[in-house]
Amino acid sequence: MQPRAPRQLVMAGAFALVVAMSLAAAGPEYSAAAMADEIRSLLPAREGSVDLMTTSLNQRVADLGGRMERAAQNNREWLLAYVRDHADTKGPLPYHPNFGVTEDQYREVLANTPALSRLAAVRLQIVEPSPGVISFTGDPEVFDLSRLELRIRDLSLQTPFGVIKGPEVVKVDGTGGLMGSHSGFRWSLEEGTAESANLTVVSLLLGRQSASGKHFLHYRAGQVVNGRSTADVNVIILFDPPKH
Which H/E stretch holds residue 34? Predict the structure, then answer.
């Protein structure tokens, strides 16, 4: 399947540079009951150790990103207007010299995929306080997961930013993207607009890597209120499939 065209949003300063790439194509269809069973099968074991992962860019791209962020901080009002003027543009924002880098360097930043590496082993426990309601607890490094509640009974996700109803089935073929080829489920929420300087973006991806067979959970949340960053969460865990 062909992936959907990537979408990009650029904000900076407290308008940090945000690049949101969506490589997911529609996956197979499930009945509600079958989806609930598949979601349960992808979760970690009830209690155990998981790998906490981190992402990194090569030094050159990180330096270019820093230049772009500083340029955006110095051109905040212009950037807001530029985003507003290109609100209907699909894909990355068109290049502009005010980005603080050359056009070739901008393309280099867009083309770079962060590397995923193991940071530490952490403890994570799956709790079911009531039938069909899943919550997480564990070491401080995964505290943000404890603020989530996965409701298997109606397939919704409770987050500090609101309730997300029903996941999207995703399937990514090929090696592109952070997780490489994978399949799974994604809950996503987007409220507000870049041009209003008020934006909330939340995503939880639960899936299985095709090559390694490992399962993973990637929770990402960002919020900008009146041009100020009020939330920036990025938790990635990788783990072996639970033994049944």
Answer: helix 32-42
Residue 231 pLDDT greater than 50, yes or no: yes
Over 105-167, what HEC string results?
HHHHHHHCCCEEEEEEEEEEEEEEEECCEEEEEECHHHHHHHHCEEECCCCEEEECCEEECCC
Cβ atoms of residues 98 and 84 within 8 Å:
no
Whether 56 and 113 have beta carbons less than 8 Å apart is answered as no
Query: Do you know the residue count of the chain?
Result: 244
Residue type, 67: R
Contact at 8 Å (CB) between 165 and 156?
yes
Strands 215-225 and 228-239 turn out to be: antiparallel
Nearest CA among 28, 33, 30 for reference residue 154: 33
CA distance 94 to 155: 38
CB 233 within 8 A of CB 220: yes
**Alpha-carbon gap, residue 216 to 227, rounded angstroms:** 32
Q: According to the model, what pLDDT value does residue 205 have? A: 96
State the pLDDT confidence band at 79, using cuts at 50, 70 and 90: confident
Residue 29 has pLDDT above 50, yes or no: yes
